[in-house]
C-alpha cells in the first residue's frame, strides 16, 4: 500500500499509551509485516495538560472527537477510552464517516455489540475487539478463525484478573477478602470502581461476547446469570482444599442443540484441572470443541502492553483487509435464534456446606432430603462441633444433578429441623461431563 495508515487514538490512559508505545517501538517491523507505515494522527483525551509518563507531540492531543471523526485522512479509530453511551454514539459516527474501528471496550461490546457490528458492516467498515476479552490472550481470534471449522461445545474461563488475584491471595496466603481486594486495587488490576469486578459483571460482559461468537447466537448481557465473589468466606476455600477442590470465579458457556447457557459464578474445580493452576491476575480460557478436543489459552488478561498488543493485532487485521480490498466483511451475523437452556437441563455436581444442630438422626434427615430428589453423595466431610453454639458443620459433595433439583434440595434443607443454616453451595466444574 503506497499511502500509510493513519490512526486516531481515542483515549490515552493505560491501554492508549501502550498502543502508542508499540507503534513507536515497532515502527519498522510493522511496516515490513503490513507493507505500509502506521502513524498516530490525533489523540483524544479529557485533559490534554495531564502529566503523562510518555513523550508525545502536544499538537497530537485534542479534546474534540470531531478532530478524529471528521478527519478524512484518518483510516482507523482506536477506541480505548471506555464508557458506554457517549462512546457508542462516537463509534456510530466513525462508521458513518467510513472509518474502521478497533476497540478494547468490553462494556460497550457486551451491551451494543450486535448494533455496532451491524453499523460497521452497513458502512463496509471493520470492527474488531480482540482486547475486550482476556486482555493479551488472542481468544477471540482463536474462536472466530482458529476454530472456524470446528464445533465448540463449551467454554470455561477465568476472565477477570482482579477476582482471580483475590481468590489466589486468600487461598495461598490466608489473606482476608478485604486485604486481597486492597492489594488488587493498588496493583492496578481492579477497575476504578471494583464492584463490576467482584460482583462478576466484568466477567459476564466478556462471557456474553465469547458466547455470541462461539455459538453464533445473539447472546445479550442480560442472558448471563451472574454471581460474584464479594465478601467470599475464607472457610469455603479451606474446606475445598481438604476435598481437593480449588475455588475460581468461572465464566461458563455451553450449548446443546443451539440452546445456550451462560453464567459467571464462584465454582470449585478439581485441583488437577488446568484452570485450577491459573494464579494471581492471570486469565485462561478452556475450550472444548468437537474436532480439536480440549484447548487452553493462558496469559495476562489486563495491563498496558498485553492489552495494547491485542489492539494492535486488530489494527494489523484491518490493514490486511484494506490491502486485500475486503474491509467490512468480518461480521458474521449470528445464524441461530436465541434459545436459553432451561434450568432443569443444566447439570452439575455441587458442594454444599451446612451448619447442623447436633441432634441424633441428622444424617438420616439430610440423606432423605437429597434422596427424594435423586441426588447422591460423592463425599461428606464432617467438621468437629464448634464449642460456642453447639452446631456442627457438614460439607457434602454431590454427584451430578440439575440446577432445579439442587435449588429444591437447598430450600428443603433450610426448612428442615436439623439444619441451622445452609451456609453456602457452589457448582463443581470440570469434574463431570455434561
Ligand atoms: N486497563 C486494562 O488492562 C484493560 C482495559 N480494557 C479496556 O480498555 C479501555 C481503556 O482502559 P484504560 O486504558 O485502562 O483506561 P484509562 O482510564 O487508563 O484511560 C482512559 C483514557 O480515555 C480518556 N477518556 C476517558 N473518557 C473520555 C471522554 N469522554 N472523552 C475523551 N477522552 C476520554 C482519558 O483521558 P485523560 O487521560 O485526559 O483522563 C484517558 O486517557 C476500557 O474500555 C477498558 O475496559 C480492556 C482490557 C484490559
Ligand atoms: N478489571 C479487569 C481488567 C481487564 O479487563 C480485570 O481484573 O480483569
From TrEMBL:
| Alphabetical list of InterPro entries matching this protein | ACT-like_dom_sf, ACT_dom, Asp/hSer_DH_NAD-bd, HDH, HDH_cat, HDH_CS, NAD(P)-bd_dom_sf
Q: Name one Pfam family in it.
A: Homoserine_dh
Name the residues that span the membrane. none
Which keywords fit this entry according to its UniProt record?
Answer: Amino-acid biosynthesis, Methionine biosynthesis, NADP, Oxidoreductase, Threonine biosynthesis
Residue ranges constituting the ACT domain according to the UniProt record: 351-427
Which reaction(s) does the protein catalyse, per the Swiss-Prot or TrEMBL entry? L-homoserine + NADP(+) = L-aspartate 4-semialdehyde + NADPH + H(+)
Its EC top class is: oxidoreductase
Its annotated pathway?
A: Amino-acid biosynthesis; L-threonine biosynthesis; L-threonine from L-aspartate: step 3/5; Amino-acid biosynthesis; L-methionine biosynthesis via de novo pathway; L-homoserine from L-aspartate: step 3/3
SUPFAM superfamilies noted in UniProt: ACT-like (SSF55021), Glyceraldehyde-3-phosphate dehydrogenase-like, C-terminal domain (SSF55347), NAD(P)-binding Rossmann-fold domains (SSF51735)
Cofactor names:
a metal cation
- Which interval of the chain is the signal sequence? none
What Enzyme Commission number does this protein have? Answer: 1.1.1.3
Regarding protein family, the annotation reads: Belongs to the homoserine dehydrogenase family.
What's the protein here called?
Homoserine dehydrogenase
Q: What is the lineage of its organism?
A: Bacteria, Bacillati, Bacillota, Bacilli, Bacillales
Amino acid at each position: 500500500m503506497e499511502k500509510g495508515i493513519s490512526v486516531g487514538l481515542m483515549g490515552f490512559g493505560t491501554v492508549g499509551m501502550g498502543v502508542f508505545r508499540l507503534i513507536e517501538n515497532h515502527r519498522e517491523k510493522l511496516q515490513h509485516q503490513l507493507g505500509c507505515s502506521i502513524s498516530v494522527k490525533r489523540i483524544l483525551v479529557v485533559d490534554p495538560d495531564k502529566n503523562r509518563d510518555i513523550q508525545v507531540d502536544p499538537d497530537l492531543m485534542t479534546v474534540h472527537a470531531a478532530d478524529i471523526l471528521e478527519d478524512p485522512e484518518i483510516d482507523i479509530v482506536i477506541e480505548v477510552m471506555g464508557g458506554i453511551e457517549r462512546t457508542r454514539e462516537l463509534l456510530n459516527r466513525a462508521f458513518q464517516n467510513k472509518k474502521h474501528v478497533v476497540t478494547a471496550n468490553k462494556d460497550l461490546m457486551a451491551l451494543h455489540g450486535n448494533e455496532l457490528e451491524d453499523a460497521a458492516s452497513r458502512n463496509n467498515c471493520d470492527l474488531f475487539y480482540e482486547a475486550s476479552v482476556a486482555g493479551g490472550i488472542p481468544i477471540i481470534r482463536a474462536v472466530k478463525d482458529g476454530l472456524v471449522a470446528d464445533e465448540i461445545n463449551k467454554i470455561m474461563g477465568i476472565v477477570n484478573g482482579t477476582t482471580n488475584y483475590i481468590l489466589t491471595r486468600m487461598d495461598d496466603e490466608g489473606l482476608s477478602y478485604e486485604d486481597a481486594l486492597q492489594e488488587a486495587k493498588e496493583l492496578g488490576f481492579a477497575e476504578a470502581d471494583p464492584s463490576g469486578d467482584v460482583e462478576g459483571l466484568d466477567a459476564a460482559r466478556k462471557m456474553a461476547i465469547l458466547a455470541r461468537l462461539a455459538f453464533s447466537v445473539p447472546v445479550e448481557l442480560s442472558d448471563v446469570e451472574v454471581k460474584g465473589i464479594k465478601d467470599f468466606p475464607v472457610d469455603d476455600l479451606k474446606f475445598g482444599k481438604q476435598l481437593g477442590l480449588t475455588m475460581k470465579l468461572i465464566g461458563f458457556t455451553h450449548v446443546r442443540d443451539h440452546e445456550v447457557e451462560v453464567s459467571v459464578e464462584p465454582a470449585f474445580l478439581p485441583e488437577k484441572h488446568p484452570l485450577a493452576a491459573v494464579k494471581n491476575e492471570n486469565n485462561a480460557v478452556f475450550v472444548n470443541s468437537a474436532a480439536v478436543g480440549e484447548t487452553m489459552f493462558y496469559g495476562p488478561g489486563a495491563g498496558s502492553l498485553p492489552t495494547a498488543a491485542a489492539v494492535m493485532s486488530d489494527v494489523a487485521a484491518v490493514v490486511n483487509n484494506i490491502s486485500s480490498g475486503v474491509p467490512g466483511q468480518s461480521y458474521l451475523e449470528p445464524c441461530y435464534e436465541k434459545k436459553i437452556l432451561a434450568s432443569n437441563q443444566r447439570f452439575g455436581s455441587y458442594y454444599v456446606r451446612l451448619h447442623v444442630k447436633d441432634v441424633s438422626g441428622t444424617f438420616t434427615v439430610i440423606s432423605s432430603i437429597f434422596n427424594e430428589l435423586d441426588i447422591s453423595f460423592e463425599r461428606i466431610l464432617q467438621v468437629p462441633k464448634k464449642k460456642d453454639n453447639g452446631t456442627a458443620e457438614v460439607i457434602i459433595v454431590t454427584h451430578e444433578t440439575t440446577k432445579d433439583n439442587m435449588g429444591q434440595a437447598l430450600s428443603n434443607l433450610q426448612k428442615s429441623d436439623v439444619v441451622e443454616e445452609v451456609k453456602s453451595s457452589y457448582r463443581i466444574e470440570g469434574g463431570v461431563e455434561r
